[in-house]
Specification:
Helices cover about 50% and strands about 15% of the residues. The chain starts with a helix and ends in a 5-residue tail after the last helix. By secondary structure, it is α/β, with parallel strands linked by helices. A nine-stranded parallel beta sheet has the order 5-4-3-2-1-9-8-7-6. The relative contact order is 0.17. Helix 2 runs parallel beside helix 12. The chain is globular and about 45 Å long. The longest helix is centred in the C-terminal third of the chain and has 16 residues, at about 250-265.
Length: about 270
């Protein structure tokens, strides 16, 4: 069990749910991303998804697309993201999942990436455009070094395929709450609950829900039946809107403190 498994285990013991937050690495700079990681951990974030910027995303909505473009223009690369994670690891044990697309990993070298990510202190990878059927190309190496391969379940995933994905999944299962891209629609809580209950029947792994979650009320409602929530676009938008504000770190931290409080309100 790595940091992700340990985190869910400790949260379960405290009867708490996981708050997972996505940051686009390098937006507005890798130095700010590193400062945000430390601040958000202190504010109550349990697991961080660090987005590796990519020029041609398929799952990310306009907010994260724009963040990726800004980050790429400032020179962020997969290598520099791994270097930042290594610096974070000198002082923090927060679980870190690299979130992105397969092209940068393929260009970096798949085997080389797995070892570099493990050495840097990465705990999991979520590669949006690498479906279950093609994942062996990466998992051969990430499994070997103990990096969790986080799998996505969509509202359109059929039961037979869900069972296959769940059987091979590690870390946690990520349920996509809407049929669409990030940050563009509000999820329907009742529908999510039904789907999470279906997934629960085929896995003992924790189930986190993401896409379209931005409000404390959503966190509270989804936290009643899921093991965690993922917030991305709302935080990335807040960072962009306040990137020239000297109170940026405090503004984002205050938002996260409110979300964390609501997420676990039924268990306090």
């Amino acid at each position: 069990m790595n940091r992700i498994g340990d985190k869910f285990k400790s949260l379960r013991a405290k009867n708490e749910k996981a708050l997972i937050v996505y940051l686009t690495a390098g937006d507005p700079s890798l130095d700010i991303t590193k400062k945000l990681i430390f601040a958000l951990e202190k504010a109550g974030v349990d697991i961080l998804e660090i987005g590796v910027p990519f020029s041609d995303p398929t799952a990310d909505g306009p907010v994260i697309q724009a963040a990726s473009q800004r980050s790429l223009k400032s020179g962020t690369t997969l290598e520099s993201v791994l270097k930042m994670v290594a610096e974070v690891r000198k002082v923090s044990e927060i679980p870190i999942v690299l979130f992105g697309y397969f092209n940068p990993i393929f260009a970096f070298g798949v085997k080389k990436f797995a070892h570099a990510a493990r050495t840097a202190g990465v705990d999991g990878v979520l590669v949006v455009d690498l479906p279950y059927e093609e994942a062996k190309e990466l998992r051969t190496y990430t499994d070997a070094v103990g990096i969790d391969f986080i799998s996505l379940i969509a509202p359109t995933t059929e039961e037979a395929r869900l069972k296959k994905i769940a059987a091979d999944a590690t870390g946690f299962l990520y349920y996509i709450s809407i049929t669409g891209i990030t940050g563009t629609a509000a999820p329907k809580i009742d529908n999510i609950k039904i789907e999470v209950e279906k997934i629960r029947k085929v896995t003992k792994l924790p189930i986190a829900v993401g896409f379209g979650i931005s409000k404390p009320q959503q966190a509270r409602e989804i936290g009643r039946f899921a093991d965690g929530i993922v917030i991305g676009s709302a935080v990335v938008r807040m960072i962009d809107e306040n990137k020239n504000n000297r109170d940026l770190i405090e503004i984002v931290s205050d938002y996260i403190i409110d979300i964390k409080k609501e997420l676990n309100i039924y268990y306090a």
